[in-house]
Protein 1
Amino acid sequence: MAAYGSTMPEVHETIAEFRAVLDQSRAQGQAIGLVPTMGYLHQGHASLLRQATVDNDLAVATIFVNPLQFAATEDLSTYPRDLDHDLALADECGIAHVFMPTVAEMYPEPILTTVSVAGITARFEGAARPEHFAGVATVVAKLLAIAGPCRAYFGEKDFQQLAVVRRMVADLSMPVQVVGCPIVRDHDGLALSSRNVYLSPGQRAAAPALYRGLRAASAMAATGERSVDAVLAPLRAAVVAAPGAVLDYAAVVQADTLEPAATVVGEQRVLVAVGFGATRLLDNVGLG
Ligand code: AMP
């Protein structure tokens, strides 16, 4: 066990040590809640950590910036990190143990076995970032294999990722209950994200347009409008009007399969992705 300052969570850097802690806790009949993260924790992560603490006897987090899910051109080496802050926040949220492996611990050899989820990953983030979801599914499968039977918490902020994880867990009969948690937003509606620190002051001022547009789309759907284009029109307009914003996609999808909707009806989700310079922002809202 490594000690970091005076913070409370125990930090484990090896798979064997972390697994032993969870095995021992399960042997005592405790329910375990696991929150996988890439660190640089904010109040969005904190909501998952708190939910895991409330629902379970033992709540644990993982902090691992997973190289497999970054393309060569992406921000792996500059991904923001602040371990002292992360551990203090995890402590506040009731997290007892943090698994923080090195890349060498997770991938001692170049990995030959990967997990890829078809269908759900074909569009949206999967189209924009072709290797991304195989990297995510592989590391989540590995973390779940290390942790063993548990509840695992993921944010609706990354709605497609949540769908991918749910499907992987179901398809592979993993002994895990996936819990989706609502999006936590800043005071002006911007969904919290570790990558928001990359935004310039001008981009940050323009970024709440995503949520404004999503709310307008959801209000349009609430009037009974069935046309996908009509529901998306105010979202597209809000993004177009935001200085520096470049729309990647805006779509209405089935909430479970992520298939694009033909008409607006039932359990659906509006997804949006916008580029501000090199920074990609995602957001979504539920319909119905
Ligand atoms: P990350 O550290 O970005 O990999 O995120 C770890 C987990 O926190 C993922 O399940 C995210 O969906 C979730 N998360 C990130 N931001 C938010 C947010 N603003 N609200 C809710 N969950 C979030």
Protein 2
Amino acid sequence: MITMNKTKIEKIIAIAKRRGFIFPTAEIYGGFSGFYDYGPLGCRMKNKIEKSWRDFFLDENVFEISTRTIMPEVVWEASGHLKSFVDPLTQCKSCKSMFRADNLIEEASGEFVEGLEPERLTELIKEKKIACPRCGGELSDVRVFNLMLKTFVGPVESSVANAYLRPETAQGMFTNFSSVAKAMRAKLPFGIAQVGISYRNEISPRQWIIRLREFNQMEIEMFVHPKRLNECERFAEVAKTKLRLLTHEQQKRGGDAVEITAEEAVAKGLLPNKWMAFFLAKEILWYHSLGIPLHALRHRHMLPEETPHYSKGNFDMEIKFDFGWKEVVGNAYRTDFDLQTHMKHSGKDLTLVDSAGEKIVPHVIEPSFGIERTFYGVLLYCFRESDKERDWSWFAFPPKIAPYTAAIFPLVNKDGLPEKAKDVYNQLKQCYDVYYDDSGSIGKRYARADEIGCVTTLTIDYQTLKDDTLTIRDRDTTQQIRVHIKDLKNILWKILEGEKLEKLGILIK
Ligand code: GAP
């Protein structure tokens, strides 16, 4: 059962706007459906989420690149997106509103219909007497609609080339596969990674930053020898990690996810190979480290009819949001589909020679993370409502992704305390994300800092002037310790590493 109500997410959205995490795009003109901007704090957090992802998922065998968001039509023809990257569309015959047909049927009937043919969706709309949710008008037959945004490159009509804004960052990694392999003298297995923007002309953007028309992805294409998909050197590190797997069987029966270790899931044939299991387990560990509880994470084996055209098996990592479970990471076993199709269309040789001297086309395991959905999950699960202790709400962000590590306050605005506090600020700002605040009462400043999830607050008082010590207050417990300014950098480092305040000094409150 979903326990979080809508009021909570409404509060979060309001704070996110008021405090500078997320703003509607072009808001002064009434907004732009499917687009949101990051404000100053959102930007800081997004950067930190990306950094944390890089620290956790990229190693010496995974090479990050940055490719363009616009690519020529031929790439999308080869990748299959021109033909197959489509959603079913229905339009109200009266008010002309457009809807994604499968979503409409699911909402009206509770039935899962993603991936069904347009003809079947049209039948279902008629059978279930589904009308336009806006005006009650009759709905049109369902037709497919390509989700890619088209553009034209070149100044004069005669030389204009059709191009598309990328719907996934992945194709830039496939088209650069050979160049990366040569430049880095890469040996299988190796990965190519990318963090960047993708675009999809979604029919009905919704749920705040869940379904957008422009969003950010963090993707890895892991290239593996086709006969060595079960040779994953670092698998032992995650073999015992518990996955919550929603198999085809469970989905048919309407059952719950089964808890199973990564190694058992491979042994029982529930996952196609060890590389897939490796990424699934790492995802659980990483999302948990971002503050999402384990019970709110699961992997769902996509049904054949909803599996993308390029994949031989997809396992979505889903988060239990306030509105239900939703995919946040798509994990696809893309086989050699992309390299083969690009070889065919470009005429270029994208094979590698293996240690036995044989020409091979590597297979690909792809974990593809959405940053905005991750952000939503973090905001939702780190949000703490006001209680007896505090009459303000706040965010318990893990220190590594919190927008600020410390806020620096002079107790009062006189007697040299602001100057001393600014001095501390200047000492810390090179190494840590810190800010200075001297406006309003100290209580108000605590509330403002907690509300944006600032990890600690440092208060400079009269004792500071005597012995160069200050108090550190912990956001989560409100406990305080007094420390010497010369030890601050070290202590903040330990706090970022997850050390509790009581281990770093004597509690004074
Ligand atoms: N390269 C594979 C790929 O793009 P996907 O499952 O279509 O796979 C991966 O997308 C992730 O990108 C999703 O799990 C989701 O987090 C994010 N994503 C996809 N469409 C999105 C949208 N319209 N708005 C926000 N995030 C989206």
